[in-house]
Fold this protein.
Amino acid sequence: MLLFQVLHKMKNRPLLCSIVGLLLTLNAFAQAPTHRSTALCGFRVYLTDKNDSPFDVSRPEEFLSQRAIDKRQRYNIAITEEDLPVNPAYVSALRNISDEIMIFTQSKWTNTVTLFCYDTTLLSQVRDLPFVEDVFPIDAYYFGKEATCAPGTFPFRDSTDVPVDTASYGAAYRQIAIHNGHLLHQEGYRGEGMLIAVIDGGWTGFNMIGALHNLYLENRIVGTYNVLPHEDGIYNLTDHGTCCTSTIAADLPYDMIGTAPDASFAFIRTEDPPVERLFEEDFWVRGAEIADSLGADVISSSLGYHNFDDTLTHHFDFSTCDGQWSIASQAATKAAHKGIVVCVAAGNEGMNSWHKLSRPSDAEDILCVGAVNVDSVYAPFSGCGPSYDGRVKPDVAACGWGTYVMREDGSIQSGNGTSFATPIIAGLSACLWQAIPQLNALEIMQIIRESGHQYQNPDTLLGYGIPNFYQAWQSHHTDAITHYTHHSNYRIYPNPTQGTTTLIVPEGTSVRYELFNIAGQLILALTSESAATTIDLNQQVPGIYFLKIISENGSEEVIKLIKQ
């Protein structure tokens, strides 16, 4: 009970906001000695500041990828001290106290270092360091335990049960069609150019499945990251990540098509499948920060926490699901405000004593995903809302009951779990954002909620309901074109464009126009006397541009132009 009391007061701590960059890589994690198999004591160390950091916001390329930097510029998200990595001098000082101290993970968003210590008498030296604000016990950790189960594993039916469907989507048709996602695909939006970070426990067999090999041939696996300190790689322990990712990435016509088959992916392992321990929430934070540093557009996470089986942690009640108590929930909200559509499984506790959703699906400003079947019937195992503080949860629902996935051997089988509903929403979110890139992540998530079939009357089982992604695209794509392109004198079409667009001016009118990028740099300036002028953006990078049109009398109009 002492641990719960100490941790519970953390929910009122001010959020120390920052994100994990590329330079402080996974090599910072100490490998556990193989000769130990006893419990270790885990502690989260809160640091006071980032003073004298070798990093600076004027050099973001040292801790953010170029994609992430470009995305911040595109959506006007400032790069601040929050983005600076944990001061490496502080990390070194902690490590140098003793070789009995192992640094397991660190977080810029909360300015914390999670460490494990064999000899707890050394903690007095940790607390005495001038840059240490607080030290909280969080966990026990065991080495040498073999995996016996996968996170969120449910009974599967073998591939002989896959129905024959005349559509090229094969087994996956109905789980996409209940969202009209196939119609969004027909418009040409299949996730191309979008980066989806999948946070999970392992991808056994994924790299060996022939139907997914095109992802590697086309360099659409941008990176694999293992946050666990005692494991190497990601292609082991469980095929849970394989199953989840296949609902997005599969591209096997007439057998199985995913929700965003043309997207790119990053795989981030934060879950230790054999155990359920509080430190995994710290690992989840690290994973979300890696996703942000890569410039991910979407996070799909089919992991959730409500209680733990370690010896130090006592019973957690539902008050911890208020969006603030959990360090992982804080991170999920931060990721959303850093420009990521965050999709998290509601959990599968609907039929047991917990009954409610889990963390971090309780986070604010994200999409908590519940489960239905292809007939839109609520899955009774799906975790219920609302959040402890009364917000609508889940936000939306997708097929997680009888969902078709690919297993580690490449077979197509059906299984149950909000784990499988979540990537369906994540993939379609990527396609929707590809279609209307002028909206930011928070706006994309909101229009997804608004497209839910029960948006006007949300409940505790399905939240705002089953979203209609095609409807969301139709209404907001039309609004965007109307808002940005139909001016009193000028029109431009298409907008967004993938290459060229045409400026339409009144007959007999002469205009000058100037094209600027989002940083305000002049790209080109021309004079035209034609009623229809082609503007070529083929050589420009995708993003937001502004076309200033100056008439003969000197009046000006500005059109926002999107290059996909």
Confidence is low (pLDDT under 50) at residues 1-39, 142-155, 479-487. The chain is about 25% helix and 20% strand. The longest strand covers residues 132-141.
